[in-house]
Amino acid sequence: MAQAASGPQAAGAAARRIDLAELAEHALAIADDRGWNGVALREVAKRAGLSLAALYRHCPSKWALIRAYARRIDDQVADSIEPEDLEEPARDRLFEVLMNRFDALGDHKPAIRSILDCTLRDPGQAFGGYTQLRRSMTRMLEAADISTSGVRGELRINGLGGVYLLALRTWLDDDSADLSKTMAALDGYLRRVERPAEVLEGRERARDVVRDAVKDSPVGRGLSRMVTAGGGDDASGPVIEGAATEVPDPPGADPRDDGAGGGGPLDDPRRGPGSAAVH
């Protein structure tokens, strides 16, 4: 009959069964009450029924627990996506993915707030947090069936990371049962980056995006009111593009100058005809 393993072999087997994500749950439960700075690995080991030496073999620091917890959240979000969700437009897929992430994080909101505060005060930890953020945003894009390869992939990862952090600020203060404030904020942030992303993908012209941005700006709306007050037919916004109108020459202008040669306001006579002055 084979004898049960004992001594160092048994200790090694026990160490191999350590689940860092489960240990992270213990750490976050402590941080919910005391903040992240109040978490000690010795207490985490005690709650998990482990010796500190056994914990250290797989977990050299508290941030190793955070990375394990983030990976578990990434897996939960990926598993929550249904095949029919991938038939929706890209913005709707990303909205679903990030809201699922916020739902998964909901059990430890005080701890996450404390972790973010500690990260912002420590540049070294902030770099580690940024690295983990990129990993998680890569997983979120892939869960939404959006490519993360190449230059465009890098832009998507960084862009989604910015959207997520902005929405996370709202989520931390959102006390509504259905996270309605978070949903509204996330939808707004995704809409802001949608059209620039369309330009990067080559599906929309940059000039059209700029034109509409001007049209919707306070200056654009003011021009629209001026056009409407003056009897214009188009009350929907300012005239961005239109037919050229003839402008009379100012007094003293040379009627023979058709603009092809020098003499214009951007021409410097010291640099010869047709050369633009740069100031």
Shape: globular
Strand content: under 5%
Within CATH, the superfamily of the domain at 15-207 carries the name Tetracycline Repressor, domain 2
- Which CATH architecture of the domain at 15-207 is right? Orthogonal Bundle
Distance between the termini: 93 Å
Helix segment tally? 12
Largest sheet: none
Mean pLDDT, all residues = 75
| CATH C-level category of the domain at 15-207 | Mainly Alpha
The secondary-structure element order is HHHHHHHHHHHH
Domain HTH tetR-type: 17-77
Pfam families: TetR_N
Organism: Rhodovibrio sodomensis
DNA-binding region: 40-59
Care to describe what's here?
- The structure is a single chain.
- This protein is mainly alpha-helical and about 280 residues long.
- It has a domain at about 15-205: Orthogonal Bundle (Tetracycline Repressor, domain 2), CATH 1.10.357.10.
- Helix content is about 65%, strand content about 0%.
- Helix 2 (about 20-35) packs across helix 5 (about 60-80), helix 6 (about 90-105) runs antiparallel to helix 10 (about 180-200) and helix 9 (about 150-170) packs antiparallel against helix 10.
- It starts with 7 loop residues before the first helix and ends in a 50-residue tail after the last helix.
- Pfam families: TetR_N (PF00440).
